[in-house]
Amino acid sequence: MATQNHEVPEWETPASAPKKGIFRKPVGGATATAQSTELNDERAKEEDVGASGNGKGSVETGSCTPRRGFASRVVPVPVANWFAGNKKRKIIVGAVAGLVLLVLILGIGLGVGLKKKSSKSHNLPLPSNTGIFTGDLTYYSPGPGYGACGFENTSEDSICAVSMLVWDAVSTSSNPNNNPLCGKMIRITRYDATKGGNSSVDVKVVDRCVGCKAEDLDLSLKMFTSLADESLGRVVGSWAWLT
Fold first, then answer.
1. For residues 67 and 72, what is the distance between their CA atoms, to the nearest angstrom?
2. What is the pTM of this model?
3. pLDDT in tens, 183-231
4. Cα(41)–Cα(61) distance, integer angstroms
């Protein structure tokens, strides 16, 4: 009996393994292995970040670390812990801080005030200024009674009152008798057209003139009439401190 060879159809022939080529991409298991490796690397990185941020080896899901406020970042932790839960300490420190701030504000205000006063005093006709000043000359009746310096004078004396601006600028005491200007001497000069020349008088400071400007002087009647006619009442003259 003749032997019959059974031929397997071409479509049933098992496919041979594809040959590897230098340009062929890996398929199947190789691809899955590579993807698994990448996934593991990413998880490892996430675990490292979680460990550095929270001090743990794994990332906690659903947790969120609150951001620290400005005060918590500025105030050292030991100081914050010292204040925590102690209301009395907070009150004491707050009171001390307020007192320090008040002293600082007062110091700044005092410094500014002294600076302004110094600037104004520099422009006043004080004895320390050796210049010649020009202002209005008037007259007043000094008596009866005592002037700001505590002297009892009359209209016949060689005296004058200086402006309250000059007087107050050098005052060192609440007692006006102790003002450094008391007893200071001033020389006044005025050109008299009727005489055709200058007239001068020396006067002593004994009083404080409230209505005078800084360069004005208020004289006794005798001193005023030595420089101008009484009927004029107010004239312009020049004066300087005598040392």
1. 10
2. 0.53
3. 999 999 999 888 889 999 999 999 999 999 999 999 999 999 999 999 9
4. 19
CB contact set of 74 (below 8 Å; sequence gap of 6+): none
Q: Is 76 exposed, middle or buried (0-12, 13-18, 19+ CB in 10 A)?
A: exposed
Place of tokens 């199947």: 28
Instruction: Check if the beta carbon of residue 128 is closer than 8 Å to that of residue 169.
Output: no
Amino acid at 225: T
Task: Write out the two tokens for 189.
Answer: 């000069």
Residue 83, C-beta contacts closer than 8 angstroms, at least 6 positions apart: 89, 90, 93
Give the integer Cα–Cα distance in Å for 225 and 238: 16
**Cβ neighbours, 10 Å, residue 241:** 19
State both tokens at 16. Answer: 């041979």
Give the Cβ contact number of residue 171 at 10 Å: 15
87: which residues sit within 8 A by CB, 6+ positions away?
Answer: none
Q: CA 243, CA 241: separation in Å to the nearest integer?
A: 6
